[in-house]
Amino acid sequence: MASIGVPGLILILTIALVIFGPKKLPETAKLPGKH
Known about the structure:
71% helix
């Protein structure tokens, strides 16, 4: 896996925010902790 760096990480987070929406993002973050 190639090293993306901070700009790439911010870009991925922005895309995830657009796809999932700001309301769904906390649910997605909590999901791995439940199982």
